[in-house]
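Thread: Modeling a multi-component assembly for a lab meeting

Hi all, long-time lurker, first post. My supervisor asked me to bring a structural picture of a complex we are working on to next week's group meeting, and I have zero experience with this. I have the sequence lines for every component (439 residues in total). Could someone generate the structure of the whole assembly? Inputs are pasted exactly as I received them:
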Amino acid sequence: MGRRQFAEEFQTIYRRLYLVAAGIVGDRTEAEDIVQEAAVVAFRKLDKFQAGSNFAAWVTAIVKHCAANYNRKLGNRRTFATDPSSLDQGGDQPATGRSIDTSEGLLAIESEFDDDLFRVLQQLSADARCCLLLRTVDGLSYAEISSFLDIPAGTAMSHVHRSKQLIRRQIDVTRPSEKASDG
Amino acid sequence: MTDHEKRLTAEQLESYLDNTMSPDEKSDFERRLAIDPQATRQIQLQRDVDAGLKRIFDPPQALADEIQRLVEAETLPEVRPVLGKSQSHRRVWLAAALSLAAMAAWAAVAWQWGDQEELEPLFQPRPLANIYRETVARGFRPYYFCEDDERFAQTFLERQDVPLRLTSLPHGQRMVGLSYPGGLSQDTTAMLCYVDETPVMVFVDRSQADQSIVTASAEPELKVHRREFAGLVIYEVLPLNRAVVMEHLSVASSHR
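Re: Modeling a multi-component assembly
Sure thing. I ran the full set together rather than chain by chain. Output:
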């Protein structure tokens, strides 16, 4: 497999690879770095890839390894989408970044909702996050998730359903005013 | 039919959201949904959650472009072991690995990864000009918008062991926020600024993390300026022949 074919193959699955990385590390920006890292590692080791075997599975294994490596190496030195020093001051405090959007109406509501959602996501296991993101963001079927992550389709479905229920429960708690207005 | 039987179950809800119901089941579900405000609320909430996940985690096209560029480059970037503090910690750990427990842990890791044990660590130092270009291409948005001097100082104290402050910038200059894009080490902290609406990045790290590869630039119009103080090395990347922002950095007196 040459550079061009490698690049083409990688292009077709980069969205899924990104979502797997994001699922494992729980962060979108780090996921980008991990997929780039995996691309370099995979290309360097291309001679070890057996022609005709599953390229997506091979690269996914490298992404998983890079992401796990990242989690293991950085441990509690991970960075966050909001000011890391604010994490010590209570998660319910508005992040500095949120104030940027508050003058934008709907954008501000979305930003606050996304912040809550991001926090709840951190409560899920890496496997559950991977399944949820692949299903929701990229619209994969449970069979496709099963094939991509090498897990049973039923397990993928359980992860997605339980994750959705947990998220709804948690988000529901953070929206008391809406609940009250529902009557 | 009792109230309990009328209530839609979680399984039915998920099945509806997954669109795996038969037409009859779906029709029956929607009829019952119309008189079940709690279930209706859950459906709407899930749609909001799905939309939120797509907003947060939509894979960026810039990543695909970057991978294309990486693979088609004449020479791939070097992947090198993590430098600095982590490496010195590793040496200490290796010395202590004479103990049986450490040997066992190492053996477990080696077994787990089998023939992949030669995979390189994640971090690699990179030319700062490349990071600048990528950051601009992605919209020049920081990890977080920093408007608080105290948090600004605290962030540098935690990441570089030195609290920094940025004095008031002259008219036409502003600092947007901080990012952690790597560069010299995985701890590198970057300030995203504008000078007369031109994006400027200032990278800060410990002096011992400094290395020449970070100053490489394939684009002559993009300049990389360097400064050292208080045990830190600071690089400013911008399309100007002189640094503009980094001279306004100093050690925060309240943290000394």
